[in-house]
Amino acid sequence: MPAFASPPNLQAYYEQVWNIVRQIPFGKVAAYGQIAKMIPPPPDVEIEAYAAFAPRWVGGAMAACPDDVPWQRVINSQGKISEREGAERQRQLLESEGIIFDAKGRVDLKKYGWSGRNEDDIPKQPSLF
Fold first, then answer.
1. Whole-angstrom Cα distance, residue 18 to residue 71?
2. How confident is the model at residue 116 (pLDDT cuts 50, 70, 90)?
3. Which of 13, 71, 91, 101 could cysteine-pair with 7, CB 3.0–4.6 Å?
4. What is the distance between the alpha carbons of residues 107 and 4, in angstroms, rounded to a whole number?
């Protein structure tokens, strides 16, 4: 399996990541790998290689994102903020959106995780009244 330090077309991949992250609603989070799975592998990248490298590529996109991307809403698959510069600011921003962290610094992904769909697209039970 060849190693891919970055996607073959870096800017095109990053744009796809940023467009997905812009859809994460206020008060919700998504994981790097979850976002990666929403993007098809670039041409000439085998699915196994893509699965191995894509979450890191999403991390690279988040590190380079424009100001209009809600970067704070992307966390790791354990429900934690990845250790790096800006981690404390990320937690503050998420808490200001009403997201609660447990004693181990994790977010409940069942409660705060984004499904990957627009919330308006999710069928709701019709009102009985």
1. 9
2. confident
3. 13
4. 30
